[in-house]
Amino acid sequence: MANNVTGVTREDFDNVMVPNYAPAAMIPVRGQGSRVWDQDDKEYIDFAAGIAVSCLGHCYPPLVDTLQKQSQKLWHVSNLLTNEPALRLATKLVNSTFADKVFFANSGAEANEAALKLARRYALNKFGEGKDQIIAFNKGFHGRTFFTVTVGGQATYSDGFGPKPGAIEHIDFNDLSAFEALISDKTCAVMMEPLQGEGGINSSNQQFLIAVRALCDKYNALLIFDEVQTGVGRTGSFYAYQHTDIKPDILTSAKGLGAGFPIAAMLTTTDIANSFSVGTHGSTYGGNPLACSIAEVVVDTVNDHAFLAGVKAKSIIFRNALGQLNEQYAIFSDIRGEGLLLGAELTEKYQGQAITIMNKAAEEGLLILVAGANVLRFTPALNIPEEDISAGMEKLNLAIKKWLSV
Ligand SMILES: *Cc1c(COP(=O)(O)O)cnc(C)c1O
User: Fold this and answer.
1) CATH: 2.40.30.170, 3.40.50.2300, 2.40.37.20, 3.90.1150.10. Which one for 10-59+305-405?
2) Class of domain 74-302
3) Which pTM was predicted?
4) Residue owning the nearest CA to atom 10 of ligand 1
C-alpha cells in the first residue's frame, strides 16, 4: 500500500493483457541479490530467479555497471554489421565448450528453432531428401514457436494451431529400446534436455546418453542438447554435458546466459555450421552489443572453478534442508536434480498440490516454482547467500506447517 503510488494494480493485468498467463496477486517492483520486494514493500526470498534466469541475483552490481557503460556506447547495429561484445562473447563460448561456431538469438525457443533448422539443412545438404525425422522425448520442453513446441513432448501445448511441422516423433526419456527401435537412416536429429526442467526435473542416465550418442553417430543423426535451462552453471558445470561422457553436435543456451537480459546462443561445430550460408537464417536483435556485453560478464563470472564449486556446495545445503523438511513432514517421495536445478516430488497423498504449496510459500514471503502438478522446483540464483537459503527454508517450513494444519 505504502509504496503503490503508481496506480498500477494486478487487476490491470486482466484488463489489458492477453490472458495466456495467470500471474500471482503481488507485483514485484525491485530486487537485490536473492531478495525481491512488492508494491507493499513486502520482502520475498527468491528461490525461483525468474525461472532459472537471474543466475547472479537481481541487480548484480557488475552487471548493472556493464549495462550502464554499454548503454552509453552502443545498443544495436543489426547483423549487417558485427560488434565487439558479440565477437568477444562468441570467442568465450567457443573456448569454454566443444563448439567452434556460435549463432546468437534472443530466447531459448529461437536458439532451438535455429538448431532444428540447421539440423534439417545439414541433413539435406549432406544426405539429400528424406532424412528429416526428428526424435524428441515425452515431457521435454523446447520453447513455444510452432516448430519447437511441436518437438517438445507435451502435445497439449502444440495442439489447436492447425497443421504441425512434420516428421517429429516422441518416445519416453531414458527408454533405450524405444530409441533403438525408432532411430534409422531417416533420422536427422535427436533433441533432448540433459536434465528435463519443465517436465519435472528428470535426469538422463549416463548409459542412455552414451548409447544415444553412439546410435546418432551410426545413423549420421545430429545430437542437439537443449541446455536453455541446464546451462551456464545451473547444474554445477558450465554446461551439463560437461559432466557426462559425451558431447552434443549442437547446444542451445539462453535463460542464465543473460542473467535477466534477453540473449540466447546456438553452439555447433564448423562442419555443421557450414550448412548455413549468407541469408539462410537470421535475427534482427540476435547478438546485439547490449545483450552480449552483459552475457560476457555472466560467462566470466560463472565459468570459474570456484564459482561452480560454490554451486555444488549450495546444492548440498539445499538438498539437506529439503531432506530435513521431509523428515519433519513426510511429504516428498523424491528429492532430485543437479546443482541448483532441484525438484521435490510430492507423495501419493499430496498429488496435484504443488501449486497450493507454491502459493502458501508466497504468502510467507518465499518465491518457489513448480514443474508439473506434483513437483516443487527450486532454481535460485547461483550465488544465493547461505543465509538466504536458510531464511527461505524457514519460510517454506512455515508454509508447509500452515498448509498441513488446515
Ligand atoms: C525455458 C526453456 C525454453 C524456452 O526458452 P524461451 O526463452 O522461453 O523461449 C526452451 N528449452 C528449455 C529446456 C527451457 O527450459
Assistant:
1) 3.90.1150.10
2) alpha beta
3) 0.97
4) 142
For ligand 1, say whether the CB of 141 is within 6 Å of any of its atoms.
yes
> Is the Cβ atom of 153 under 6 angstroms away from ligand 1?
no
354-364 vs 386-404: helix axis angle to the nearest 10? 120
Residues of the chain with CATH 3.40.640.10: 74-302
Is the distance from the beta carbon of residue 236 to the nearest atom of ligand 1 less than 6 Å? no
CB 188 within 8 A of CB 119: yes
Taking the chain (406 residues) in consecutive chunks of 10 residues, what is each chunk's mean pLDDT?
Answer: 72 97 96 98 98 98 98 97 98 98 98 98 97 98 98 97 98 98 98 97 97 98 98 98 97 98 98 98 97 98 98 98 98 98 98 97 98 97 98 98 92
Q: Show the cell assigned to 324.
A: 530435513
C-alpha–C-alpha distance, residues 37 and 31, integer Å:
6
Q: Side chain identity at 307, as an amino acid letter?
A: F
